[in-house]
Design brief:
heterodimer; A: mainly beta; 4-stranded antiparallel sheet; 0% helix; globular; B: mainly beta; 7-stranded mixed sheet
């Protein structure tokens, strides 16, 4: 079955701390991978995506993610978080050439000022 | 990219009644998707709406409860029928293509009392 697993449901960090959010997926085939972010009171928006090529992808606001095919993982990282990064983060997967995106349960990040 | 407008943005409804949510896209798209995001949870796909054919429902969702219309390539509606408090959720319209990420409307926050 197709699924996405996010390792942490809640993360609390202080400003300037480093962030890594884990994501593993189960999918029978090649995939496209995404991280979406939902800031308080706002709708979902794309943080970054991987379709092909360099497995280390960079997104907006200093976020990056690394696709490790052998581990079926797509972890999100940021070297130094800011208070404004407080949000919910969703990892998602879609089969290459497909149309249906499957979401993980989400990770709520709270950054203390 | 795609700009998606959803109406209403929020509503409070009596149990036993129905609510129809509208989704308008600024460009023609083949597939539109309806998701539910229950409080504190991730996005769950309800159904895929293709223009000119019946919607395809995910496991656990049925047409009688969530009828969908897709009259043209830029518009869709989702009706939540015979509502109960368990239907209180955010309902999201999305468009997705095989070569890009999903785009979302701002959502409809439904409270059933």
């Amino acid at each position: 079955a197709q699924s996405v697993s996010q390792h942490n449901h809640h993360v609390i960090l202080s400003e300037a701390a480093s962030l890594e959010l884990g994501c593993n997926y189960s999918y029978g085939g090649t995939v496209n991978l995404f991280w979406y972010v939902q800031y308080p009171g706002q709708h979902l928006q794309l943080l970054l995506k991987y379709f092909s090529g360099d497995p280390l992808v960079k997104g907006i606001k200093g976020f990056e993610a690394e696709f490790i095919k052998s581990k079926f993982s797509f972890n999100l990282r940021k070297p130094s978080v800011q208070w404004s990064d407080t949000a919910e983060y969703f990892c998602a997967v879609k089969g290459t050439g497909g149309f249906k995106t499957i979401f993980g349960a989400g990770t709520r990040l709270f950054v203390k000022a | 990219s795609a700009v998606i407008s959803q109406k209403p943005s929020r509503d409070i409804c009596q149990r036993g009644t129905s609510l129809t949510i509208q989704c308008q896209v600024d460009s023609q798209v083949t597939m539109m998707f309806w998701y539910r995001q229950q409080p504190g949870q991730s996005l769950t796909l309800i159904a895929t709406a293709n223009q000119g054919s019946e919607a395809t429902y995910e496991s656990g969702f049925v047409i009688d409860k969530f009828p969908i219309s897709r009259p043209n390539l830029t518009f869709s509606t989702l009706t939540v029928s015979n509502m109960s408090p368990e239907d209180s959720s955010i309902y999201l319209c999305s468009v997705d293509r095989s070569d890009t990420e999903a785009f979302f409307g701002q959502g409809t926050r439904l409270t059933v009392v």
